[in-house]
Specification:
The protein has 163 residues and is mainly α. The protein has 6 helices and no strands.
Length: 163
């Protein structure tokens, strides 16, 4: 018999079952191609970050969501413009590497994105360093700019969920 707390194991089991059962998908994210799903997930991450930013004080969450939106936007572009599949993007730097390989950003810009991620995302996530309002604002602006640039860049038109 396990010594794990039953209150935790019961809820963990419920979480597993919820993924097995499925359920009502998030509006706007059902029955999409892989590239549309990544684009629209980025839209939702940006919207969530904007909602939290409006509440004034959730800077760490805004930075996390902004990094996620940037990665989903690069993944959207790579999937739309190549034979890449969503399962190819299993680490945080691969999206930047693919954006460079596909010619949408330069090697210098790829390095800048990777440095921003490695030096600041990890520090804000894993260390005791507090994220500032200015950092959250800058990251959200960067996420929106990248998302808009990539959404408008491909040869095909994709409908975005952004407000």
């Amino acid at each position: 018999m396990s010594d794990d707390p039953k209150v935790v194991t019961d809820v963990l089991e419920q979480a597993h079952r919820s993924f097995e059962r499925g359920g009502t998908p998030e509006e706007g994210l059902a029955e999409l191609t892989e590239e549309e799903a990544q684009l629209k997930k980025a839209c939702r991450l940006i919207a969530a970050a904007q909602t939290l930013q409006d509440q004034n004080g959730y800077h760490t969450a805004v930075v996390e969501l902004a990094f996620g939106a940037i990665e989903r936007s690069f993944e959207f572009y790579a999937i739309a413009m190549s034979d890449d599949a969503v399962h190819d993007f299993m680490d945080h730097e691969y999206a930047y590497q693919r954006a460079f390989a596909l010619g949408v950003i330069s090697d210098d810009l790829k390095e800048d994105f990777q440095a921003l991620y490695n030096e600041n995302r990890a520090a804000s996530y894993y260390s005791g360093r507090a994220v500032t309002a200015e950092q959250a604002d800058a990251m959200l602006e960067l996420a929106i700019t990248i998302h808009t640039f990539l959404r408008d860049h491909p040869r095909d038109h994709f409908n975005c969920l952004c407000r």
